[in-house]
Specification:
- The protein is an alpha/beta fold and 360 residues long.
- It contains ten helices and 13 strands.
- Helices cover 26% and strands 18% of the residues.
């Protein structure tokens, strides 16, 4: 909040800035019944004024006139804006690795980058996304390992919402399937269904399909059969069989990823099911230039006008001279006229800000 103005020509100080540093990719939402996206901080150095601090109150010199050389009035500091915000981080990455738990996503990321995500032979080893910088054929791009998705992820099952939102900013998906499963095709279809249910745009992102664990005998022996099955399910001949354990096929997979990135559009991060054209353009409400008066059910006349509210807060009710000066300011600013037009009569109660008195 702004500080109050004082005598001796002292203007109140403006409220201090409170600056919060957030990671690139942070979205700021108004935390309301129907949340509103206020800004998407997706560039380095980007700034956003979420709430305006209060200006300092005018000192007594502001109210000096040729007929009032010694004003006893000053202005209270303007209160700062108050609102509830929700911050949501969506990681910025070119490529996202998606798949079911234990498909080998973290192992693949650790092979192709210097990232060291937790790797173990049990589901849900990864509970948060991991980023890695990839250098391949003279090109660089960022890859993110999205924790394993399970059935119902689009409804938040297994922290699904926490994971799926990071995929929205990626340009290309590497869909990694565990080739050693009894029915890897079913797993492939389930993951795609979860992407589509969460946001249709996710299912339309370019995908590079990779079948992992080629180092296992069951997978290598059935490679041709698996290729035919995935070709029919994915409607593509480009199916990569890799081993994150032995690195077999990884370079060819990265070649395909680079090729996909060349043609992939930049993502537009919007809430699931919302078109960018549907997002509201938020503009500050216009400041009220003239005082407004309304009458409450109990007959109290309420003046809405910030300058009068800030001045009323500083008037000493026991100082007759200060009250006369305050009344003269109300006349000059149009407050008295607004009250009279609203029908006020002597004996009625007036409220300006937190100050109440009887009109006479």
């Amino acid at each position: 909040d702004g500080r109050r103005g004082e005598g001796r020509l002292k203007h109140g100080k403006d409220g201090k800035d409170l600056t919060l540093s957030v990671p690139i990719g942070t979205q700021v939402w108004a935390d309301e019944v129907l949340p509103r996206l206020l800004v998407d901080l997706d560039e380095p150095g980007q700034k956003f004024l979420a709430a305006k601090g209060g200006s300092g109150g005018a000192g007594n010199s502001h109210y000096a006139t040729p007929t009032n050389r010694f004003p006893l009035l000053a202005q209270a500091g303007e209160p700062g804006e108050e609102l509830s915000l929700r911050l949501e981080l969506k990681l910025l990455a070119d490529v996202g690795i998606v798949g079911a738990p234990n498909a080998g996503k973290s192992s693949l990321l650790s092979v192709v980058s210097a990232a060291r995500p937790k790797v173990a032979n049990y589901p849900f080893t990864t509970l948060e996304p991991s980023l890695g910088m990839i250098e391949h054929r003279g090109e660089t791009f960022v890859m993110v390992d999205i924790p394993g998705l399970i059935e119902g992820a689009h409804d938040g099952v297994g922290l699904g919402h926490e994971f799926l939102r990071h995929i929205e900013r990626t340009r290309v998906l590497v869909h990694l399937v565990d080739g050693s499963l009894d029915d890897p095709i079913a797993q492939y279809r389930q993951i795609n269904a979860e992407l589509s249910e969460y946001a249709r745009d996710l299912s339309l992102k370019p995908q590079v399909l990779a079948v992992n664990k080629l180092d296992l005998t069951d997978v290598s022996v059935l490679r041709d059969d698996l290729h035919d099955a995935f070709r029919e399910a994915a409607n593509t001949d480009e199916i990569h069989f890799i081993s994150a354990a032995t690195h077999e096929g990884v370079d060819r997979l990265l070649d395909s990823v680079l090729h996909a990135l060349q043609d992939a559009p930049d993502p537009i991060a919007t809430p699931p099911g919302v078109s960018p054209d549907d997002l509201p353009i938020l503009r500050p409400a216009p400041r009220r230039r003239r005082p407004a008066v309304y009458v409450e059910d109990d007959g109290v006349y309420v003046v809405e006008w910030p300058p009068a509210e800030r001045m009323a807060a500083m008037v000493d009710p026991n100082d007759w001279t200060a009250n006369v000066q305050f009344y003269n300011r109300l006349i000059r600013s149009g407050v008295v006229r607004a009250l009279e037009e609203a029908g006020i009569t002597p004996g009625d109660t007036v409220r300006i800000g937190e100050v109440e008195w009887q009109w006479d």
